[in-house]
């Protein structure tokens, strides 16, 4: 996976940010890579709906995916354009202050610390911090 996505446009960014579910997904990916199974559990929505939103974010150039066995992992791909990247960073910072978004992250953190409590996630890889991934 490369660092910055070259084709993210300002209009594409705003279109991608115009949906509450996509904002929640981006918030959960802020600073880490997350397996799709965690999104489904945390957001309590069906796989097709989550997959559709992740595909939209990928097409907009905001998210990258990688496969590890049967698991798909997603992380934010920063836009190459400095202005677009600054807008995305400001949105992510704002989302981090929102109570509902904080609750989502808390649920993700709890799920990652105790995946055995979530039967659907049994055997799923835990989300990795991007800093940890870069050290590997």
Write out key terms for the chains shown.
single chain; 136 residues; alpha+beta; Arc Repressor Mutant, subunit A; four-stranded antiparallel β-sheet; 4 strands
What does this structure look like?
This protein has helices at residues 10-16, 20-29, 36-43, 47-59, 82-95, 99-113, 130-135, and strands at 32-35, 63-68, 71-76, 128-129. With 136 residues, the protein is an alpha+beta fold. The chain has one domain (10-121): Winged helix-like DNA-binding domain superfamily/Winged helix DNA-binding domain (Arc Repressor Mutant, subunit A), CATH 1.10.10.10. A 4-stranded antiparallel β-sheet has the order 2-3-1-4. The longest helix is centred in the last third of the chain and has 15 residues, at 99-113. The protein is globular. It starts with 9 loop residues before the first helix and ends with a helix. The mean pLDDT is 83.
């Amino acid at each position: 996976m490369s660092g910055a996505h070259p084709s993210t446009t300002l209009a594409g960014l705003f279109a991608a940010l115009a949906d509450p579910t996509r904002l929640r997904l981006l918030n959960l990916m802020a600073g880490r890579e997350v397996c799709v199974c965690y999104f489904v559990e945390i957001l309590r929505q069906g796989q097709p709906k989550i997959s559709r939103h992740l595909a939209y974010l990928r097409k907009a150039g905001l998210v990258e995916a990688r496969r590890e066995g049967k698991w798909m992992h997603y992380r934010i791909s920063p836009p190459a354009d400095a202005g677009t990247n600054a807008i995305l960073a400001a949105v992510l910072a704002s989302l981090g202050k929102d109570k509902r978004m904080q609750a989502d992250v808390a649920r993700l953190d709890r799920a990652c610390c105790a995946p055995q409590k979530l039967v659907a996630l049994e055997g799923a890889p835990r989300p990795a911090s991007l800093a940890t991934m870069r050290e590997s």
